[in-house]
Amino acid sequence: MRIINEPARGIGNTTVNRIISYANRLRIGIWQAIGNLEAIEELGSAARKRVAAFYEMMQEMRQAATHKSASQMVELLLEELQLLELYRKGNDPQDIARAENLMEFMNSASEFDERFTEENDRTALLADFLPFVALQTDLDRVKDEDEALKLMTLHNAKGLEFEHVFIVGLEQELLPHRLCMNTREEIEEERRLLYVGITRAKDGLYLSYATERRLYGIFDHSKPSVFLQGLAPDLFFGSIDEAAHVPAPKRMGKFRHKYTDKDKYYYIGQDVWHEEYGAGKVLNVSGTGADALLTVSFAKGALLKVYGTFLKTTPTDS
């Protein structure tokens, strides 16, 4: 019954308990009781209206599930229930993990759609997807002593140790997460989270990132996490992706506090200089060249979004 008021719909525990009490008296299911609200005399008109709205929404979902694909249904449910918005507004670090899990769940549904349609020559419905999810969930019941791969979030890894640890998804806007890049404190908390994961390994540690990632069913290019720039180069089998380096176009004209350089380009982890804030390091790049909008962490403590035209790549360039 938790879903009936999460996110909050103004349906309190008293209303829920009265519905349950009615269902118990008639020895019927709770959903059947909700479908017969007019008979529950204990409910006030306002409560009855709110529960009726929830019931109508769920009935529409059930109808949609008969013809929409699994990924369409997951997207529709997340939109109607507003769960992503709920967790994105939360202050609890676990809320970010919950939002990420929902996004990954949507990706999983999209991938299932593709495989199922290819193998069965028909649309994958939610009823096809749920048994697959149940099968995947069974893997979570593997005992600790079993020789099996343990899959978990960085938050859940606290206090544990493993012979070998693989940390994937070390990409900008994943780690550090896009919702945790507004202040220096948030970024440092993300760095500490990565430290937790790194220190879980006894013998072997493997860090990786994807150059392309599917998000909401759409593929997009990824950039290596800025945290990778702080690790010794000799620890890597390969180098940090050069694709993160963005070449700049020529820019004409001179303006106060603006710097032009035909060879200027910006990339994550680059050291830059601002006339007022001094030295800084690029955490994120949006756009190209002097017109790029950069997120810069300055040594003086400021974390700002600055256009490339206001930055130098060294204190002495012109």
Q: Supply the CATH architecture of the largest domain.
A: 2-Layer Sandwich
Strand order of the largest sheet: 7-8-9-10
Q: In this structure, how is the largest beta sheet organized?
A: 4 strands, antiparallel
Radius of gyration: 26 Å
Mean pLDDT: 77
Terminal Cα separation, in Å?
A: 65 Å
Order of helices and strands: HHHHHHHEHEEEEEEEEE
- The total domain count is 4
Low-pLDDT windows of residues: 241-263
Count the beta strands. 10
Overview of the molecule:
About 7% of the residues have low confidence. The chain has a four-stranded antiparallel beta sheet with strand order 7-8-9-10, with no helix packed on it. It has a two-stranded parallel sheet with strand order 1-2. A two-stranded antiparallel ribbon has the order 3-4. It is elongated, with a radius of gyration of 26 Å. The chain is an alpha+beta fold and 318 residues long. It has four domains: 65 residues, no CATH class; 61 residues, no CATH class; 82 residues, 2-Layer Sandwich (Double Stranded RNA Binding Domain); 44 residues. The chain is built from eight helices and ten strands.
